[in-house]
Amino acid sequence: MFHQNVISFDMNESKYLNKDSQQISVLKEEFLAGHELSYISLYDNKLVDFPNLICNHDKLRILNLSCNNIKKIPNDIVKLSELEMLDLGHNEISELPHEMGQLTSLKYLYVSNNKISYLPDSFNNLKNVIYLNITDNLLEKIPASIFDMKSLVELRLYNNGIEDIPSNIRELFFLREVHLMNNLISVISDGITELKNLIILNISNNSIEELPVNIGKLDSLMELNLRFNKLNRLPDSISELNNLTILDLRANNLTCLPANIVNMNNLKKN
């Protein structure tokens, strides 16, 4: 979902180019000529190459190139120094250029449904990103550079091949939503229990056998989805999640629950 509504934006016609769903395979210069564009959307076209002409519009704040067939992002994307929102989802991209780490105005980055297996180390400079979506890619671990994105509020990494949630996730103190379902996660470090602002944690459809003993420290948590894992037991501290309204434990190996779970009065009953 392209969150264009969350950035205040002057919809002045001369600054806005929308050519969605027009079967465009090559972006013509005439579309861009004579305008100092702030918003470009070429969603759902036939682009194979990233239109280099776009990189000349250094006042661009929002760029949507999702649902094309783009394979490579040019190094010149670094010229888009004022870019706040970038959607490259649903393309054929296997790697992102090191230079993207210089786009320090970025707040929203979507690269879902591509062929990405890693992020460049330079992405640790993206300190202002609050929303990151790398779902449906080829990640085998959470890229280290993500843990330096200190402003992150929402992290979506589902449908990858991620095997663990490492301890340095604690660095992302402002996280409110973590979506890691449909991975290969078997280990969750205690670091996740330091995320005091976390409201939604979805780690369903993984291979998790146990939760951190101190899971109850997540006292802001409202939704915890654990269905389709390999849990044999739950830590007693889970009953300390007093704000929890949704707890999904379906399709696990649980034979009993902590006695105090009956005192979780905010839980919704299905």
UniProtKB/TrEMBL annotation:
InterPro entries: Leu-rich_rpt (IPR001611), Leu-rich_rpt_typical-subtyp (IPR003591), LRR_dom_sf (IPR032675), LRR_domain-containing (IPR050216), LRR_R13L4/SHOC2-like (IPR055414). SUPFAM superfamilies: L domain-like. Keywords: Leucine-rich repeat, Repeat. Residues 54-128 form the Disease resistance R13L4/SHOC-2-like LRR domain. GO terms for cellular component: cytoplasm. This is Adenylate cyclase. It comes from Photorhabdus hindustanensis.
